[in-house]
């Protein structure tokens, strides 16, 4: 989630071109639909926003002028301000897309010629491309597959929910014509393949809906005739001849006339091509009819069908329980050929002869000399029996018989050119021409849909979190989810989720109607385990002690063994951005292995030592910071189990900076507090306690801690606005850094000093320290440090009115934070850019920046960053004239700051601004007494903190209250005092921030003073 909000801030509002383009798919072949890259539906709320999206899609990437969009959406009843209203709808559409997929808001762009939707994945375009591919293919079977895949994209009439809109009608007409043409082409190729009996029935309703389409009618008449229904075919010709005459005044075309004559003469040329047959094969296929629908596999089914259209051997691989058999049956169900299923699971072991016997038996191929026939002869006889057939043979559960199955399949494919084979196996057959489709677990939403459907529950707020937990912990495996769903009736959703630590007991109730190997979760994994040799089992257990997956080096397993486990779908190999591979187990497989773990102590000790060494080598304080942060992100699940097992103070302290950079303050505090007997860990733990609000600020001495620990404690004090204590610790740490010649530490201390000086109103010191820190961090190549120093310099530029410079610093900071994935800092930078936009007078942009900053902060549970954004929204609201909205934001923030003051026992810097803003709201409403009270309270807080700018702000507020009361001389004196204070601090009010002062001054002048 963090990525989505981050990229919102880096797109559209900035012009630096940080390009992310994650695919979002659009559907217009049916009701308007949007899906994420992994198939999750995207909700686009509000009818006008959906109409806008439809209008942009209709234009297929061409710009649409704003006035054209307004006319299309509102017609003769436009809104009062159509341009602004359209911009609002565009923003709503962008937000809907961005919530679904990071960077997707950038798909909706504005150009001088109008708005454009840069949609690369639209089902209508995919449909057209598949049609083109089909027309380029000569082989009828392949063409039939491509046409079937193209037509499968249709979910209903094109633009079904906007068919009556004028802007959609041309596209609807065009797409419907393409669909009908595709149906006609499909009918013709199915006739060539001999599928006339089924086709005769299927085309009847279509012809009734489009009775004047001669090409469609010709296909239907031919199918009726070839099915032995000649009288119906001749009646159909008479009907179309009459309709053409009555409706259009035309005669049938030459193709229809020729077909009619051929039917009357029973022309042999109408007969389908002869298909060689053998009496040794039974005449009817044996595919079972599925009892329950297939959830979440639409694209996988389409992919397997597409592979079958271009390859004669397709193997669906994947772990046990992932749904390989169901996928294969769904893909085979619409095959134009006769289709046969052969189950191989019951044959626990065997050679070529035994496998051939099972296949021959399922197909009804008789072997009249079966006794003692050599294996090669039996396989050859089976191949001869299939030679003249067009057939799809589905071989299910081949993993325990891979070698004999591969040998038989190769023999059959060489002998029978009309044969295609679809196999399911935990590993490929590895023979020439094989197309392998790796089937993975269900995605989050599909897994939840499957579980809810099988459990008979309605997903809602009350159980959504529990359902999500079940789906995640069961790895999205359909069989495991169905076994879990069966326990919901007795345990409830929450009860099932809470018992998954003992999953093999929980999911042990035998399910009727399934093969024994699939009736319990343990049986599913037993089936795979039994096929492994001893070395493979030990390798699997070595992987199991790494809950987050691991690299080849970390596993301690030879590469060839890892490859064997991956090929058998027992382990998953995932390429990393670096190009290296990462190996992991599904959680259920890992749990199974941990129960059987041989030599547990040896494996655990080796693992712990590996990750302790990794943390020792991690360098988070220099140019390799980005790489090491991401490496530790990858390894965190493994690091966590090592910390939990070893409670190593040294490793814990070395990870403290990682926890801070990643914004995981509570986690850091918990681990550090557990080893707080170590003086270094105790100092870091005190700092994290401040960051998390675990108690009042501890101002006691810091003994036995390094300069970096003291500096970090100073950073935490400055974070809560405790400039005095923060300054003391900064001085102490800086002395230590210089004694150690710690260049990074000195740069960090200078950044802290800049922040302290800013709090205390010493802008010159803040500028010097910030600039020095930035130069040092830049030389060191530390992006976090550059971010912090640029942050201070950006705030200073805001104060002096140099908004261009402030924006540049904050944009640099956003880029650094984005690169390091420091989401809390990203939120602050977005809000800071919002402040700059506010000061520059662009309130709409300011609001968007602050909203994004607040949303990201909320996602990260960073309340400090959230409040910073909330205050910004209050500033935007007041300057927009929305006093009620401003007050609501300010009251909420003030209450939170008050609670922090009570909890920490120190005054909070932000309180002065909040009181001043509330006072200005009251003054603008004409509530003089209330305004005076708020500003007096703010003045007292500002004097406690000691910031002259905060004091000046409170004095300006009191001047407004006095002017409102009619005390104009007092008001003038207060304004003059405030201006002098600002001058003395080197921060006179820049023009963009003089709005309140100018309003008060105007009131004084209006009274003649």
From TrEMBL:
DNA-binding region: 11-119
Signal peptide (UniProt feature, chain positions): none
Domain spans labelled OmpR/PhoB-type: 11-119
GO biological process, one term: phosphorelay signal transduction system
Lineage top rank: taxon: Bacteria
Keywords: DNA-binding
Transmembrane segments: none
SMART domains: BTAD (SM01043), Trans_reg_C (SM00862)
InterPro entries: AAA_22 (IPR049945), BTAD (IPR005158), OmpR/PhoB-type_DNA-bd (IPR001867), P-loop_NTPase (IPR027417), Sig_transdc_resp-reg_C-effctor (IPR016032), TPR-like_helical_dom_sf (IPR011990), WH-like_DNA-bd_sf (IPR036388)
Any one GO MF annotation of this record: ATP hydrolysis activity
Family indicated by similarity: Belongs to the AfsR/DnrI/RedD regulatory family.
Record's protein name: SARP family transcriptional regulator
Organism annotation: Planobispora longispora
